[in-house]
Design brief:
Arc Repressor Mutant, subunit A, single chain, elongated, 5-stranded antiparallel β-sheet, Jelly Rolls, alpha+beta, 2 domains, 274 residues, 10 strands
Length: 274
């Protein structure tokens, strides 16, 4: 029996109680929504694709996957959270600063849903006692999805964890912020080492371990991405874009750009300019 059903802009929060030896009325799916099932009391099972799983910490059902919940000799209570797939993709894209068209998630979790439960609880209270606070509801939806993605394995997880590691390591975060603020200028490894207060050798090793590339490779990435934005959204000539993006010469700009995109700068602009 469902005794809570709250709908937000991009998510839903529900609670269901099952008597012993009871089940959902019918096998069903949730269209474009992911559904997270979190056990709150007793033992609850889920059958999906003719495979039965006891729900331990939490279990994910992907959009379009038919399933149903049931209990055996014990009663069960579950928290159900639905997340629109397009909103989830959007959150990932914003988080990693890269356009993500479809995240592929696995059914089983790799962490505790405790934080998800706390955020859902706050969303319920906010809806019941302060339902005019739309901004806070939107913030909580984002927090809910971010918390879920941090404990759910899938195609996003490596880059998501990398982002977490960057934010949790103040030295690397400081160097990244320095690069992002000063990429238009001539930067050297000595400059970055000064910012990190460590040797160039150790900075390169630490940066690569956490970010997945060296500081110089990250600097080139930022410069090229800035150049692409200018190519697509301004009428500036290529030489002006080259130096505004921090490249020391047009030849270097052309070489780096072609290596990354497989075409010349002029071809790229002609093909992609909005």
């Amino acid at each position: 029996m469902r005794y809570l059903n709250l709908k937000f802009s991009n998510t839903k929060i529900m609670m269901s109680h099952f008597n012993p030896n009871s089940a959902d009325p019918v096998e069903h799916d949730h269209g474009n929504d992911y559904q997270i099932t979190i056990p709150l009391k007793g033992k609850t099972y889920l059958e999906q694709n003719k495979i039965t799983s006891q729900i331990d910490k939490h279990f994910l059902t992907s959009p379009g996957e038919k399933h149903f919940h049931f209990t055996d000799s014990e009663e069960g209570r579950i928290l159900l959270i639905n997340i629109n797939r397009f909103f989830l993709d959007h959150v990932v894209s914003e988080k990693v600063n890269e356009e993500i068209y479809e995240v592929h998630l696995l059914n089983q979790s790799i962490g505790s849903p405790e934080k998800i439960i706390k955020i859902a609880d706050e969303m319920i209270k906010c809806n019941l006692f302060d339902n005019e606070n739309k901004i806070r509801n939107e913030e909580l939806e984002w927090e809910l999805v971010e918390s879920f993605l941090s404990i759910q394995n899938g195609s996003h997880f490596e880059i998501w964890q990398r982002d977490f590691m960057i934010n949790s390591h103040p030295v690397v975060k400081k160097v990244i912020q320095y690069i992002q603020k000063n990429f238009e200028n001539e930067l050297s490894l000595d400059d970055l080492a000064d910012q990190s207060h460590m040797s160039k050798f150790y900075l390169i090793k630490l940066f690569k371990d956490i970010v997945g590339c060296t500081p110089s490779q990250y600097l080139l990435k930022i410069r090229v991405e800035h150049a692409v934005d200018l190519l697509l959204h301004t009428n500036w000539d290529i030489t002006k874009i080259c130096f505004d993006s921090g490249f020391g010469s047009l030849n270097t700009f052309e070489r780096v750009f072609k290596k990354r995109y497989g075409m010349t700068i002029s071809e790229f602009r002609r093909t992609n300019k909005i």
